[in-house]
Amino acid sequence: MIAIDAMMVCLDLSDIDEKLVAFTRSICERLQVGKVYFVHNVKVAELSDDFRELFGNMDLATEVEGNINDIVTEHFGNATAYEVLVGEEPNTEVMLAELVKRYHIKLALLGKKMSDKSTGALGTKLLQVLPCSVLVFPETASASIHKALLPLDFSATSVHALRLSQNLATQLGLQLEILHVYRLPTQYFPLISEEKAVKKAEEIVKERFATLQRKHQETAGVPYTLVRAANKSVAERIRLHLGKGKYDLLVLGLKGSNPLPSLRFGSVPKEIYNMDLPIPLWLVYSEEVIR
């Protein structure tokens, strides 16, 4: 069973905040969530001179907290225990990372605007520094989730994401499917037949799936699809597959063995995050990785 002791919702005082709060409510109604922290950081140092001249020494943090409380009251209600936290720190990423550690946050919810409205730079930084799993909710996404896709590469990271996805599917009654994108060693063509190479690659992958299902019997009934990357990146193949299956959620495992955040994040999750996907993206760290 998935139990989220503490969850952090990152708000930016834009139109997407109401959607994030409403989506948080739907999560709390369907999963066991202990407490939710609605968080915003006011960068006082970046306020313009015009703002200071117009409003003087106004307690901006208190005003922001009141605004967030109004949104939470309207769109979250009493779904579970919650607290509104407003900071005035120069570095938002550092502040949020510290809150994750202080309150033992298991899941952070981030909103994501389309690329024509935002560069997504802050979100990319947060994904690299937050020591917890992250659920990204695009502004065009729906809170209704019925079908989930898990790309699997057989790493320990993706197997952990598979277990979480299976538990999620069981608890919420979701339809779960697995996708594996494979590549062929094209440097050996035409020394070997491409047809034979494809056949051999798929045989190997199917055997790996069989081994995985024997080891994790709860996954035995989950359907999977094999897709060749060919002239596309793995992330692009995943995006194309999403367009065919009418999925409502994408789950990806995150690696954590590299001490450099830019490498730890991984190229596939980063590329997918930067795409304008219309569905939520759950980026999963295992407890071992976080420790």
From TrEMBL:
Ranges where the UspA domain occurs: 146-272
Pfam families reported in the protein's UniProt record: Usp
Species this protein is from: Hymenobacter citatus
Superkingdom field: Bacteria
Record-given protein name: Universal stress protein
